[in-house]
Amino acid sequence: MLSKARYSVVIAALSASTMLQAQDYLPVLQYHHVSASSPKSTSVTPEQFTEHMDYLKNAGFQVVDLRSALDDLKANKALPEKAVAISFDDAYRNIYQAGFPVLKERNFPFTVFINTEPVERKSRSFLTWEQMKEMEKSGGVFANHTISHPYMLRKEKGETDDAWMSRMTNEVDTVEGLLVKYLGSSPKMLAYPYGESNGQIRSMMKERGILAFGQQSGVVSADSDFENLPRFPASGAYAKLSTLKTKLNAKPMPLLSEKAGGDYATDQPVSISLTFKEGKYRFKDLACYVSGQGKATLEWLSETEVLASAPKPFGVGRGRINCTMPDNSGQHYYWYSNVWIRSSADQGYVSEKS
């Protein structure tokens, strides 16, 4: 029989071991279609999706409920080792037809962000409320993707800033009401259509207690902006299993702060300043890539602050800088991404100050 002192040592050792195995970050996978006949850029085939889910199961990943995991991260509670969450955008019916059976068989929880206009219109290409109720019984959670999937930062012709904000508020609040009406509750999560938001939209989310996702890649941690969270796309060009494995092994970049100069790009190249936490990191292996342009220029402003700059301006649309750095083990990559919008005058984007 163990003495009381020896018992305390054993318990402490077990607790330390558990802490080492726990995870303080969460990769979130983003899918759209599960179909061989839908647009390839936003699709995985049923065979690819099955391959992804088989890998998660066989490699020992713990698929967790998204909202619960986010709440734990915010509260600095550890997640299971190899925790990952699964999400879908747009409420396509092929999620029910080809994705849900695979998830149900493996007992994996998942979240679908729904835009309700085609659901209410009873489009045959989108989920029905009855199908959602069925999916809820096997780990499905349904969250907000607005009514009509608008570009949330674009005003309609002649629309004032106040009228635009009122319209966006309605896009969000109406879906929250429909989730409660048809499914009994809302998880208070939203995915921004096209990943676009600004300070005003993110403040609206915070006021409502809604956790929201952009379309920048990366890993969620307690340090994340919970009104603009990252996800990893796993469809189209990102559907290869080798690509998925790299992302599943990603860690959040250990940053103290970041300065991107706002949500919009101009006719000048973008740059972003990253300040790292104290620690021993492989800074010489940090690499940043600009969408469509190759490597960013890195200028170290101090031992822990770097300025990453694009070689040339972005074209109209969304552009990003992705940064990665191997950890000391070489088995994981720290990952960071930022997105900018380069708008044209005819698109009606609200101003940076709105």
UniProtKB/TrEMBL annotation:
Q: Where is the NodB homology domain?
A: 82-284
Xref: PROSITE patterns:
NODB (PS51677)
Compartments, as annotated in UniProt: Secreted
Query: This protein's superkingdom?
Result: Bacteria
Q: Which UniProt keywords apply?
A: Signal
Signal peptide (from-to): 1-22
Q: Which SUPFAM superfamilies match?
A: Glycoside hydrolase/deacetylase
Mind telling me which PANTHER family this protein's record contains? POLY-BETA-1,6-N-ACETYL-D-GLUCOSAMINE N-DEACETYLASE, PTHR34216
Q: What is this protein called?
A: Polysaccharide deacetylase family protein
Q: What is the lineage of its organism?
A: Bacteria, Pseudomonadati, Pseudomonadota, Gammaproteobacteria, Oceanospirillales
